[in-house]
Write a structure and sequence with these properties.
Bound molecules: nicotinamide-adenine-dinucleotide, uridine-5'-diphosphate-glucuronic acid
Low-confidence stretches: none
CATH class of the largest domain: Alpha Beta
Mean pLDDT: 97
Number of helices: 18
Radius of gyration: 24 Å
Distance between the termini: 62 Å
Largest sheet: 6 strands, parallel
Shape: globular
Structural class: alpha/beta
CATH superfamily of the largest domain: NAD(P)-binding Rossmann-like Domain
Length: about 475
C-alpha cells in the first residue's frame, strides 16, 4: 500500500518535529498533526515561527517548508483520523500519579483514549503506529480496543519508537542512526511494515531501517533509554569518587571512551540527567520487571535513578556546605533551567530539584535561562507541591539578563550547558558579585582555571579543585 495521507495524534516535542520532517521529505504525503490542546495547535500555526511551541534548532525552516503545502496542524481529531491511511499515536505517557503502579508504571490513559477514538471514527482499514514510548505488550491492548467494534474495519498495529534527543531533534530525524519498526510477523503485518518502511525510505538508507516483531521494538525503546541513562549515572558515580581521590572525571571519561568497546559519547558528568523520559522510562521498566517477579532486574535498573537523585542532592548540599553551611537569605544565581542546552524543555530538569533543596535552606534564587519562560519555572516548582506557590514566588526571581541575575549574588550555579555561558564577561560578573565569589559548574562547561585567576572560588563536578 502506498501511503498518501498520515495523521498524527499529539503535537508535542515528538509529534511536531517528527511529522514536520516526514512532510518536508515526502511532499506527496499529506500529514495532519492533531491535538486536543487548541493553544498548542494555534502556536504551531503561528505566522511568526519564534512562537512555535517547541524550540529546536532548524525546526522553523522545516515547518515553513511544508506548512500549508502538505503539513497541517488542527484540532479536528476525528476528521484527520477518518481521512488518514496511517495514524501515528504520539501522545504523552507520563508516570502514573495515582492508583496501582503509582510513581512507577506508565499512565496509558491518553493512549487508550486515542485507540478508542480511532475505533469510533474509522470507516476503512488503518495502520496504527505507536510513536509514543510504551511498556512492552501495549500493542496487544491497543489491538483489543481497536478490534472491539466488530464493524469489519481491520487494523494493523506497528511499533515505531522515536529515538530523537531534544536540542538535536531535526538533525536526529534527518539523519538517524536507525529507524525501528516492529509489526506482526504474518503477511498483513509485513505489508504494514513495508508501507512505513517506504515512507522513511524517502530519505533514510534502507540498511538503517530495522524491522522486528512488535514486542522487540517496544522493549528496545525502553532498553535504549535505560542504557543511555545508565551511562550518565555510571560516570556520575565515578565523579564523586574522583572528587575524593584527585582523579579528574573528564580525564577518566576520555581514557575509557577511547576503548572502542565503550565509546566516547554520553560520558559527560553532570548535576544529573533530566528530561521527560529517562526517569519515566526506567521507572516503567522497573515496574514491568517487578510485575513479572524479576526483582533483581528491577533493582538493578532502579539503581540508575537512585544514583541520579543522589547526584542532584549532593550538588545542592555542596553549595550549602561551601557557603559556610548557610544559604539562608543569600542570593544564589542559576545559569540555566532547561534540562539540557538548545531546548526550552524543562521537564525533570535537575535545576528544579536543586532549586527546591536550596529553597528549603531559605536561599533567594535568581534564574536566567536563554529560552525558558518565567511561567514555566514557577509551574515546575509549584508542581512539586513542596511549598505554597506564594512561597516559590517569594524565593525565586527570574531575570531576562544574565549580568543582572548575577549582580550582588553570593554564588553562581551552572545548571544547563548553554554555549553562551562560556562567552560571558566573567571579570564583569566577578566585579559585581559579593565576595568571596563562588561558581559551582554543574556541567563542567566553564574554564575553571581562568575563573580562578579572576578570583572566583570555583568547583566543577568530578574534580578536586
Ligand atoms: P508532549 O507532552 O510534548 O506531547 C503530547 C501531546 O499529546 C500533548 O500536546 C497533548 O495535548 C496531546 N494529547 C494527549 N492526549 C491526546 C488525545 N487523546 N488526543 C489528542 N491529543 C492528545 O509529549 P512528547 O514529549 O511529545 O512525548 C510523546 C511520547 O513520545 C511519549 O511517550 C514520550 O515518552 C515519547 N518520546 C519523547 C521524546 C522527547 O524527546 N520528548 C523522545 C522520544 C520519545
Ligand atoms: C533521550 C535520548 O537520548 C533519546 O534517544 C530519546 O529518544 C529520548 O531521551 C526520549 O526517549 O525522550 P533527551 O532526553 O532529549 O533524549 O536528551 P539527552 O541528550 O539524552 O539528555 C538527557 C539528559 O542526560 C540531559 O539532562 C543531559 O544533560 C544528560 N546527559 C546526557 C548528561 O548529563 N551527560 C551525558 O553525557 C549525556
Amino acid at each position: 500500500m502506498k501511503i498518501t495521507n498520515i495523521c498524527c495524534i499529539g503535537a508535542g516535542y515528538v509529534g511536531g518535529p517528527t511529522m514536520a520532517v516526514i512532510a518536508h521529505k515526502c511532499p506527496d504525503i499529506k500529514v495532519t498533526i492533531v491535538d486536543l490542546n487548541a493553544e498548542r495547535i494555534a502556536a504551531w500555526n503561528d505566522e511568526n515561527t519564534d512562537n512555535l511551541p517547541v524550540y529546536e534548532p532548524g525546526l522553523d525552516q522545516i515547518v515553513l517548508s511544508a506548512r500549508g503545502r502538505n503539513l497541517f496542524f488542527s484540532t479536528d481529531v476525528e476528521k484527520a483520523i477518518d481521512e488518514a491511511q496511517m495514524i501515528f499515536i504520539s501522545v504523552n505517557t507520563p508516570t502514573k500519579t495515582y492508583g496501582l503502579g503509582k510513581g512507577k508504571a506508565a499512565d496509558l490513559k491518553y493512549i487508550e483514549l486515542c485507540a478508542r477514538q480511532i475505533a469510533a471514527v474509522a470507516k476503512d482499514d488503518k495502520i496504527v503506529v505507536e510513536k509514543s514510548t510504551l511498556p512492552v505488550r501495549t500493542a496487544e491492548a491497543v489491538k483489543n480496543i481497536l478490534d472491539s467494534t466488530g464493524n469489519g474495519v481491520k487494523f494493523q498495529i506497528l511499533s515505531n519508537p522515536e529515538f530523537l534527543a531534544e536540542g538535536t531533534a531535526v538533525e536526529d530525524l534527518l539523519n538517524p542512526d536507525r529507524v525501528l519498526i516492529g509489526g506482526d510477523t504474518d503477511a498483513e503485518g509485513q505489508a504494514a511494515i513495508n508501507a512505513l518502511v517506504d515512507v522513511y525510505a524517502n530519505w533514510i538508507p534502507k540498511e538503517r531501517i530495522l524491522t522486528t516483531n512488535v514486542w522487540s521494538s517496544e522493549l528496545s525503546k525502553l532498553t535504549a533509554n535505560a542504557f543511555l541513562a545508565q551511562r550518565v549515572s555510571s560516570i556520575n558515580a565515578m565523579s564523586e569518587l574522583c572528587e575524593k581521590t584527585g582523579a579528574d572525571v573528564n580525564e577518566v571519561a576520555r581514557a575509557i571512551g577511547m576503548d572502542s568497546r565503550i565509546g566516547p559519547k554520553f560520558l559527560k558528568s553532570s548535576v544529573g540527567f533530566g528530561g521527560s523520559c529517562f526517569q519515566k522510562d526506567i521507572l516503567n521498566l522497573v515496574y514491568i520487571a517487578k510485575s513479572y517477579g524479576l526483582d533483581e532486574v528491577a533493582d538493578y535498573w532502579e539503581q540508575v535513578i537512585i544514583m541520579n537523585d543522589h547526584q542532584k542532592r549532593r550538588f545542592a548540599a555542596n553549595i550549602v556546605k561551601t557557603l559556610y553551611n548557610t544559604v539562608s537569605g543569600k542570593k544564589i544565581t542559576f545559569l540555566g533551567w532547561a534540562f539540557k542546552k538548545d531546548t526550552n524543555d524543562t521537564r525533570e530538569s535537575a535545576a528544579i530539584y536543586v532549586a527546591d533543596d536550596l529553597l528549603h535552606e531559605q536561599a533567594n534564587i535568581a534564574v536566567f535561562d536563554p529560552k525558558v519562560e518565567e511561567t514555566t519555572i514557577f509551574r515546575d516548582l509549584d508542581y512539586l507541591a513542596t511549598r505554597k506557590p506564594e512561597e516559590n514566588k517569594a524565593g525565586v526571581t527570574v531575570y531576562q539578563d544574565p549580568y543582572e541575575a548575577c549582580r550582588g549574588t553570593h554564588a553562581i550555579a551552572v545548571l544547563t550547558e548553554w554555549d553562551e555561558f562560556k562567552g560571558y564577561d566573567w571579570q564583569k560578573i566577578y566585579d559585581n558579585m559579593k565576595k568571596p565569589a563562588f561558581v559551582f559548574d554543574g556541567r563542567n562547561v566553564l574554564n575553571g582555571k581562568e575563573l580562578k585567576e579572576i578570583g572566583f572560588i570555583f568547583t566543577g563536578v568530578g574534580k578536586a579543585y
